[in-house]
Design goal:
The protein is α/β, with parallel strands linked by helices and 236 residues long. It folds into two domains: 5-16 and 106-233, Rossmann fold (3-Layer(aba) Sandwich), CATH 3.40.50.1000; 17-102, DNA polymerase, domain 1 (Orthogonal Bundle). The chain contains ten helices and six strands, in the order βαααααβαβααβαββα. It has helices at residues 17-31, 40-59, 65-79, 86-102, 110-117, 131-140, 153-156, 163-173, 187-196, 225-233; strands spanning 5-8, 122-127, 149-152, 180-184, 200-204, 218-219. It has a six-stranded parallel β-sheet with strand order 3-2-1-4-5-6, with helices on both faces. Strand 2, helix 6 (131-140) and strand 3 (149-152) form a beta-alpha-beta unit. Helix 1 (17-31) packs across helix 4, helix 2 packs antiparallel against helix 3 (65-79) and helix 3 packs across helix 4. It starts with a strand and ends with a helix.
């Protein structure tokens, strides 16, 4: 197979969402006594569970990102045994957002990898989230000049793993699925979605999780850029 197009997930593939989240949670864990009823790992796990559950409502348009954030932290205060209130939840949510944005950064090697692929293949991002948030992340990390297409679920009207969102991206790039690669960290959304769309998947397994399917190629880092670029351009 000769790769002609490469699609990337954004959060925790190119953009270091987990790093920003952990920095924000560390600040909250140190600041609010209610959260110290948990270890940091317990706090992180409880937050992740609520984030994923409420993100479904955000993608469906039932909640705004800001509403979901406030609801998330009100629930976390309650789960930790504190006294929840909307005012406290808004204060915590604002601090979380402040620290989260202050730590926006690419995953190590992401920008160099996009640069290494430039001129060799068409490149695009396919991401589930609200458009304004994802566009801001792309600009903050300097990705935009190295991307030929950006497809965001809110604008596309369909979310990963639905094959239609991948088809939208490839249509914009002008390449067929048979010669395209999708690189992403989320198995259900990125890998299963890509396979359903007829796209060759590469799992970005940054944290060494067990693979649901060892036949799917995986990478554990985006560095060194040239080596990873060659793996993407010439998948097994």
């Amino acid at each position: 197979m000769t790769t002609t197009a490469v699609l990337f997930d954004l959060d925790d593939t190119l953009f270091d969402h987990q790093g920003c989240t952990r920095a924000a949670l560390c600040a909250l864990h140190a600041r609010h006594a209610a959260f110290r009823a948990w270890s940091f790992d317990q706090f992180d796990a409880a937050h992740r569970s609520l984030l994923e559950a409420l993100h479904v409502d955000v993608l469906a348009g039932r909640l705004t990102v800001d509403e979901a954030r406030v609801r998330r932290f009100r629930s976390l205060v309650e789960q930790a045994g504190g006294e929840p209130s909307d005012a406290l939840a808004r204060t915590i949510a604002a601090k979380y957002r402040e620290v989260y944005v202050a730590h926006w950064q690419p995953v190590r090697g992401a920008l160099a990898l996009l640069q290494a692929l430039r001129g060799r293949v068409a490149t695009g991002v396919v991401t589930n989230n609200v458009a304004a948030e994802q566009q801001q992340k792309i600009d903050a990390c300097g990705f935009r000049p190295w991307l030929d297409a950006i497809v965001i679920s809110e604008q596309a009207g369909v979310s990963k793993p639905d094959p239609r969102i991948f088809a939208i991206a490839l249509d914009r790039l002008g390449h067929p699925p048979q010669t395209a690669v999708m690189v992403g960290d989320a198995w259900d959304a990125d890998i299963a979605g890509a396979m359903a769309a007829g796209i060759h998947p590469i799992w970005f397994n940054r944290f060494g999780a067990e693979s649901p399917d060892p036949a799917v190629p995986e990478i554990h880092s985006l560095e060194p850029a040239e080596t990873i670029a060659e793996l993407i351009l010439n998948p097994l």
